[in-house]
Amino acid sequence: MASGADAELDEGALRARSIGVIGLAAAPSPAEARALIADALNLAASRELRPVIGQTFPLEEAAAAHRAIESRTTVGKTLLHVRG
Question: Quick check: is 42 in a domain?
């Protein structure tokens, strides 16, 4: 939703892929937040949860990365990397 637009979901397609969506109407309690974070980290560790990497920038271009995020033109996660 970085663009400000709500995402359209096809409930039938989600069900066909056994994907569930849980919305948060209110902030979770600290205990609930810890449990959600633990679940997300476990899913990431098992590679069931994979972030969408939309764009990468060298660390030297951090300002450009911030401009891209602030302009709401990015898709997925924006990564900064150190050239190696």
Answer: yes
46-84 per-position pLDDT tens digit: 999 888 899 999 999 999 999 999 998 888 899 999 976
CA distance 47 to 11: 23
CA 27 to CA 56: how far, in whole Å?
A: 30
Any alpha helices (H) in the chain, and if so which ranges? 11-16, 30-45, 62-70
Number of helices and strands (H, E) in the chain? Answer: 3, 2
Q: What is the rounded distance in angstroms from the CA atom of residue 50 to the CA atom of residue 12? A: 22
Domain total for the chain?
A: 1
Element (H, E) at 78: strand 77-81
Cα–Cα distance between 26 and 57 in angstroms, integer?
34
Please state the pTM of the whole predicted model.
Answer: 0.49
